[in-house]
Every structure is written in structure tokens, then in C-alpha cells.
Amino acid sequence: MKPALSSTAALCRGLLRAVAACTLIGLTILIPAAASAQPSGGPYGPLRQNYALPAGAARIFYVGPDAPAGASGSALASPMRLEEAIAAARTGDAIILRGGLYRTGDLLLNQGITIQPWADEKPVLKGTLVAQKWNDLGNGLWTTTWDKLFPEKPADWWRRSREGKKTPLHRFNNDMVFADGRFLQAAGYEGEVDAESYYIDYDSKTVYIGVDPAEHLIEITAHDCAILRTTREIHGVKSDGHGYTLRGLTFSQYAYRALEIEGTDPEGISPESGHGKMVTGTTIEDCTISFCSRVAGYFRGDHMTIRRCRISDTSTEGIYILSSNDVLLEKNIFTRNNIERITGYYPAAVKIFNQCYRVTCRDNLVTDLPWSNGIWYDVGNVDGVFVNNWIENVGCIESPARTDQLWPSDNGFFFEISKGVICAGNLFVNCDHGLMILNSSDAQIWNNTFINSTACIGRNERSAQGDHFGWHPATGPGVEERDGHILANNLFTATAGFARPLLFVWQPPSLCSRLTEPMLKKMGDNLFVRSGAGNKTPLLLWSPAATPSCQAALKSLEELQSSHAEFAAGSREFLDYDGPLFKSSELGHYQLLPGFTAARSGVQPADAVRRAAAPRERDMRYIGAYPPLR
């Protein structure tokens, strides 16, 4: 088995970094995979298309980037301004954008309309303006006065006493500056400014940069949103309750966020019927959103679909799904979140937050997130579905991992304070934690492949009484209800030098006498493969156990068999293994080879798992995300 800190990881990181300067162009990434594989292997992200006019549109408004004010927009030859089209459009209308650059923002709409390109053209919406008047200070610094500033403070729950040494306060301001499209980091004062950073004196409204603006295009944020789908009355009409459809658009360089859909934000326990109903049916396809100083978008509303989009170079979150039901995220690319390296804000490329029901993440590529979580179902979610996703390079696996608790950590898939999820058919490669199930119940974890990525399941005594986030823990299962998990048909592998356990089941000593039964309802038919001789790291860490730490360090399945025989049934281990395993980890082919003696293992999952992960396959009696090669 070749090291999985591999050509694949290097290739993905290299590709994504190479296109960092080209994030205004829709990108599709294809990763080699077998035809029957899960994940699919792509294509992921926006697909370049030739768009037909929307069938059945009530009216069509044609828009151009340099259109004069007052134009009718009734024909391709007489396009109107985007701002005027959005003000005029009503339910069922379509806005067709000619290609080019639109420097605009703070657009308000409340109607279910379609916005898309004309034919195969590429409209780009930017939230910056070009800064043209500069003063050379003669010391390697240049200044300009800028009126459109977005100062901000950290949220009141951010713990400055814990994080202030690592995250300076100026990182929380929402302004951004770009030199030739290159993102510059914020500095604390002008003495820190160099070619890769900027400083803003908010009292005098002065921006400092360290590159000669005569030789570079300097852009500074002027809008903190591209399109706000409001629930209020606007443009003389009330909200129709319908979500918009966005296709084939690029949004970049917005302070705060590019898109937001208003809706209900419960501040306590809320029934499914109590949220997600103000705007429904939003569809966003083949869009690119990059370089937003906080998030690409805040999205609320039932029956929402986000498909084949590329979300990158954001700060606290890529996209944020709030209190919404029956949502689908499919074939998207989520990459490079937390580019400012803010600590204590719990960043995630995708955050699904606050009592969302039936949110499905299917066949997405989540990669190159060294300072962020991947996809995080956070607080009160119910019946999630997380299937066939490719998760790679989330967090850092080179630093020592803690064994007394599960955090601080960055997790490819994180399911917290929630009830019920199917996690199946996913690939986790070189992640700090591949998955973490924390303070939740009834997670069904089937047929996943973990490569240098620890799987974690844990619980502690956290409850709504005295919690830092108040009511949050009350939305999930109680302390005594954090169990019922199933772990089966999974493949856990580690290359030489990976000095972490492959499975970590945890609870603290404070719960050891209170909760004596395992969190897992069923565990079996898993494979554990570890390469390299002399690895003394435990294969599994297991709680609860009758030790002072409430934890047992198990070096082999034999040790698990002696204490919990019911959880070792059907499982096998291959330690110090150097035989055949994957078709080619170097090229991202993670199907098991026929020469691997345990290739034909596994049991049939429950029908609900099979329907979610592999609806076209009747037989999932195999180990890991991929059917073995024949």
C-alpha cells in the first residue's frame, strides 16, 4: 500500500492552488473513478453550458454590463441595467445576463424569478470597485481614502481570553483588498503592511497597501451583498414566498456575503412546521462564489437545491444552511474556507445549522481545508443524509492528536447535537478526523473508506443548563440518549507514519459511572489495515472502559473481542501490512484489488441505507465506499 499522503493529495492541492487566481471562472474537477464507484469521481462543480431561454417564462428581461439607464430590456439588442431588471421582475419572470463584468451589489428581490446567462456567455458579479486615486508615501506604502468600509467586531460568543492571542481583532472587519485579483490579508497597522497585506485606518477612512498601484489593479470591497432575497415588501410588491433560480453565474469579492435568503431563525426548540416556510423552492446551479469576507451565502427555506457549484476562498463558512428542511447539496466543490485563519469561530466549508430536517449532502468534493471543518450538521438536525462524498485534506494530520477528548479538531463530516443520519459510501483521505459524531443519536455509518483519517464517535455531559450557547444542546438528544449508532462495512486504513488510532470512541471520566453502556448499538464487519512496522499507536481507543480515564487503548481486534465480542464480529485486521490493497491510491483509485484477501467481505445494509447510498445497486455486501474490482 503506497502512502496516501499521496500523489492524489498533492494533485488535488496543486490543482486547487493553481486555479486560485482564476476563481472567477467556473471550474469543473474530475477525479478518476470506476464507473460503479461511490463517490462518482465527478464531474464536480460548474458545468459550462449553452443556456436556452427558460421555458414558460412570463416575461424576459435582457441585461448587459454596460447598459444605459432606462433601457427597456425587451430584446437582446436593447439590454437594461441589472438593478432595474431586478426591480421590475415579478413571479415567473426571467432575467438573462449578457457576459461581462457587473460591479454591483445590495440588490433586493422578493419574487420567484430566474437569473441566468445568455447562451454560453459568462456574467461575473463583483462587489469591489477599482481604487484609482493613490498617494505615494515614499516609504513603500501607498494610501487612498475609501468611504465604503465595513468595520465589524467579533460575535459576542467569541472568547477573546482564549483566542485573542491567535486572532487579532482586525481580522473580523469585513473589508477586502485585492491586487491583480490576489487576496491580501489584513494587517494591524501600517508597519505590518507588505506586498501581501493591507491596513485600514477606520477613523480617517484610509487604506494602506504595499504594492505600487500604478503597476497593479487594486480592488476594494464596496458592497456587502450581491443579492438579498428578502421576505419584506420591496419594489412595490409583497414577497411571493417562492425562491429564485440562479444558474451559471459567478459572484466574487463581496464583503460579508454574496447571497442571503431571509427566513425564520428559531432561538429555541422549534417544530419542523415552525421554520423554513417563508421562502421555498430555491435552486442554485452551476454557480461560482468566491472571496467573500465571511460566507458565500446564508440560505433559508425548505425544498432548496444547490447543485454543481464551486464555493471557495471564504472565511468563517462557505455556505450556511439555516433552519431549513428537505435540502439537497449535490456535486458541489467546497474548498479553501477560513482563508483568514480566524480561530474560535468554528469554521466549516458547509454548516447546516439549527433544526434542519432531511438535509442531503450527496456526491460533493470537499477538499483543501487545512484550517476548517468540512461539512458540519450543527445543532438540532434530524434525519440527515451524507452519502458518496469525496472528503480530502481537511485539517492537519501531521500534528499530534489528543486522546483525552475529541477537540480541538477539524472534521471532514461533523454531526453534532442531532438525531439520525445515514453516513454511507464516503471517502475520507488525509483528514484530521474523517468523521465525528458528537452528542448525537442513531448515526448509521456504513461502507465508508477512511485513509489516514480517524473516525470519532463521542458524547459528554454538555446540556442546556449553563451552556455557553444557551439553548443549543436542548435541540438534540439528552445526555442519556446519545447512543444507538451503527458502524459496519467500513474500511479503515493507515499508511506508514500515521500515528493515530483508526477509530476513537470517547466519553470523559465524568460520565463513566453514569453511562456504562456503549454508544454503539451495532458494530461489525469492518476492516482495519495498517502499513509500516513498529507502529505502537493503539488501533482503537474505546469508551466507556473500567479505567481511570474511562478509556481503553486497544492494540488489536483481539483485545476488543475479549471485552466486547459483539462489536468485533465479522471484522478483520491487517497490521504491518504491505500486500495488495487499492487499485492505485496515487491516482485516486480506491477500489480494493481482487488479490486483497478480504476484498469480498461485508453484510447487506438496511434498505434505507442502500436506497440512500446506492439506489441502483441491490447488493452492498462489500467493505468500504467502492465495490471491489473483479
How many whole angstroms does the radius of gyration measure?
Answer: 25 Å
Q: Strand count, sense and closure of the main sheet?
A: 24 strands, mixed
Mean pLDDT: 93
Strand elements, count = 47
- Looking at the structure, what is the overall shape? globular
- What structural category characterises the helix and strand content? mainly beta
The number of helical runs is 5
List segments where confidence is low: pLDDT < 50 over at least 5 consecutive residues.
1-27, 32-37
Strand residues, percent: 25-35%
- The percent of residues in helical segments reads under 10%
Give the N-to-C terminal Cα separation. 19 Å
What does this molecule look like?
By secondary structure, the protein is mainly beta. It has a 24-stranded mixed β-sheet that branches. Strands 1-2-5-16-19-22-25-28-31-34-36-38-41 form a 13-stranded parallel β-sheet, with helices on both faces. Strands 7-14-10-11-12-13-9-8 form an 8-stranded mixed β-sheet, with no helix packed on it. The protein starts with 6 loop residues before the first helix and ends in a 17-residue tail after the last helix.
